Amino acid sequence: ELANIYWSALTELNTDHYVVERSYEGQPWNDITAEVDAQGIPSATYTIQDTDLDVAGTYYYRLRDVETNNSFTHSETIAIKVEKTEVEQVIDINVYPNPAVEFVNITLEGADASATLDVNIYNNNGQVISLNNTDMTLDTNHMILDVTSLPAGTYFLQIRVDEQVFIKKLN
């Protein structure tokens, strides 16, 4: 998330520089820019971006106008409300037994009910040995892979749950 902050000055007769300040949810004000030098021209315009809006809530902004004698004034305060709608799922994946001879159980905890599960098995040389794609339902967060056709060795399971990818070593 980011906020574009624009301001203009009709006159900058005694203005030395500006500083943009931010407060999150009424906490103390912090400078989010270094000093932005005044252009010294009529109708000067400025733009900055605040890219540090990682938490949902209300962010307040104001401009500190610093004069050549170091006195300053603050602009009016503006508020921007940030809402986060996407929450990345925390998924716990278990693969057992390991080492495996006949089958491997894959269990997922925390996966969304509509998640798509892709499982690829790679050998030690990075070659794809097996592909499996299934739609999971909330009550079936368990998958069994038959590994009886795999020779003894080390393999890697690439498990993709929607856009998240996990790698598990399998012996």
Strand coverage percent: over 45%
Strand count, sense and barrel status of the largest sheet are: 6 strands, antiparallel
- What class, by secondary structure content? mainly beta
**What Rg is obtained from the alpha carbons, in whole angstroms?**
28 Å
Rounded mean pLDDT is: 82
Question: Number of helix segments?
Answer: 0
Give the fraction of residues assigned to helices. under 10%
Low-confidence stretches: 135-139
- What is the tally of beta strands? 15
How does the overall form come out from the CA principal axes?
A: rod-shaped
Task: Report the span from N to C terminus.
Answer: 42 Å
Task: Describe the model.
The chain is an all-beta fold. It is 0% helix and 54% strand. It is built from no helices and 15 strands. The protein has strands at 3-9, 15-24, 30-31, 36-37, 44-50, 57-67, 72-74, 78-82, 92-96, 103-109, 116-122, 128-135, 142-146, 155-161, 164-170. The strands form four sheets. Strands 2, 3, 4, 6, 7 and 8 form a six-stranded antiparallel beta sheet that branches. It has a four-stranded antiparallel beta sheet with strand order 12-11-14-15, with no helix packed on it. Strand 11 and strand 12 (128-135) form a beta hairpin. It is rod-shaped, with a radius of gyration of 28 Å. Mean pLDDT is 82; it is low at 135-139.
Question: Care to give the gist of this entry?
Answer:
This protein is mainly beta.
What descriptive keywords fit this protein?
54% strand, 0% helix, 171 residues, 15 strands, six-stranded antiparallel β-sheet
